[in-house]
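Limitations
The structure tokens in this dataset are predictions for the assembled complex, not deposited experimental models. Users should treat interface geometry with appropriate caution, especially where small molecules or nucleic acid strands are included. An illustrative entry is reproduced here so readers can see what is and is not provided.
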Amino acid sequence: MSSLLAVNTILAAGDPTHVANGEEIAFWILGPVSLLGAIGTVVARNAVHSALSLVATMMSLGLFYLIEQGPFLGLVQIIVYTGAIMILFLFVLMLVGRDSSDSLVETLRGQRAAALLAGLAFALLLSITVGRAFIGRAPVNLATPNANGNNVNRIADKLFTDYLFAFELTSALLIVAAVGAMVLAHIERDGPRPTQKMLARERIRSGRPQPLPGPGVLSSGNAIGTPALLPDGSIAPESLIGGTTIEVGAVSSTPELDR
Amino acid sequence: MMSANLSLLAADDSNATLSAFGHDAVWIILIKVVGVFVFLVVMTLFSIVFERKVVGRMQNRIGPNRTGPWGVLQSLADGVKLAFKEEIIPVLADKPVYWIAPVVSAVPAFLAFSVMPFGPVVSIFGHHTALQLTDLPVGVLVIFACSSLGVYGIVLSGWASGSTYPLLGALRSAAQMISYEVAMGLSMVAVFLYAETMSTSGIVNYQRHLWNVLPLCVSFGVYCIAMVGETNRAPFDLPEAESELVGGFHTEYSSMKFALFFLAEYINMVTVSALATTLFLGGWRAPIPLSLWHGANAGWWPLLWFTAKVVLFIFTFVWLRGTLPRLRYDQFMHFGWKVLIPINLIWILAITTVKVLGDRGTNRVVVGACVLVPVLAIILIYTIFDVRRQKNIEAELQAEDEAEAALGTTFPIPPMDLVVPASPRLVSVGVSVPALATSATPPSGGPPSTTEEGRSDG
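Predicted assembly:
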């Protein structure tokens, strides 16, 4: 927060070519963090560690936007990407299970070297293009459009006038994706969904309303009168309640029945 | 800058506007940071004792009353005890993530309060400054972002524990908090539309004459429900359902790490309460009879009103916990997605229409009628259909009940003429006990204590 304040004071001074102190400090902290996060995303063996590295990168980017006078963009980046999308990623990864890890056998020979080379080439291309675009141009700060807290209003203006078509197109794409997901996940029900009362009644009617005995319990019921079974399936006489006798074969003794 | 502040002060009832922030001296910022931290920690200690006391009273108990006068130091003692407890880390835990999770849960909880307005411009050692650490044009989104980051603490702790119950708790909480964040965000949208700003100080300024809770009553209701879901409190405490999941996501945590989760949960409670106060209940502004006194909204008094409103919300949280049973998971998700969100969307549409037409100068009565009549009609038609559907369902159930009765007694119902043999213990002592029938009317004349026993056993 203090870096933000420092940025504000420097911007108030109005020297666009000078990089503010706070901004510089924030850059040298967040830059390495985002870079390490990006590397960690690729290198980490564990899928959840990889996802967490990506979260670190996204949050640093969000803070970068904040510092570069885009508070709305920065916070939306944090809310949408780290708060919603990455949580859903984690959700799926957790369902997959923590012990599953990628097989390290390479199916394509030399793909790592090729990927590294391609990545470096792309980075070079990107930095040259972006770098050339900025050479000889004085950076302009956003103090004027952001004045009086109108950052959000300016974005809304642009979005709903100049970029309306792109905006609507994107939303159409998202809706199509959402509908597609619903169609894929849709299950046709045979009848109306049973209510809680119906289910309870069905369970009582089944003749076995109590929960099934836990695994390893060699009995076909859990009432106090039910005799214990020996490993061979016969009734343990010690477990019989005084006075009761049970005909041989009256109790089905296969543990399979219990599951 | 000071003169600008002063002119603002003169013009606008000592309100701080957005441009007033970001010019404080470093020592004032430090004082404010420490102040916010202390406020949150004290509120946590207070809330825990308060909750235990209130729940105790609701259950005809006294609650903690041993530590300190009236037991007020109980949570302090508990906190000290937690810090000195042995720390147990499961063998299967993923160490780094296990360690990070409580920190990730506690830090955003504190951070969210950085944009909360506690009061108007006051004088601290001769410097005029707002009782608020800082503000941004998108202040409310900061709080929202912090609450969405808090989910990570829960999710990661559940995963890193390497145990089944925490994992289930974490999965539940991830789904729950994301679902209820949507409803929460939508109910904030109505406030943004009305106040035309997202900065917290601006929203408090806007409520100078009328608190948002009146024009935006539906949003307020949805927000209040969503905030209970967002903080994992009863009746929406599925991620830590004691009867199903032991402790949920923090089952495997102990000592200081558990204390951090505990702290984060209570701070989150304070945060959502404070946000509800800021968005809907006029923030630090005095309630109606008090606001007639001119000095009520100046100086340090507003801090008191603000705290009182927050405590009111915390009391509601406790009340809910003492009253309502936990929801079933599917019903809970159904409620979030199919009830809260559609209501919110329709409400935002209606509010936007009223706002836009009102801004264009149309008569407010006409606008209100044009918008409210269709909305009310929709609600009425839906209600009629729903009532008819309910009647059908009831008739069906009754028919089923009758069919059921025709089949005779079922498993758990003992026969009406069941005779329970006399207890051998009582027989050996020599007390003559009439055989107890487990019908609705026990035979009269038996010793009352035995009758009671028979009833409670049955």
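Some entries come with short summary sentences. For this one: The mean pLDDT of chain B is 80.
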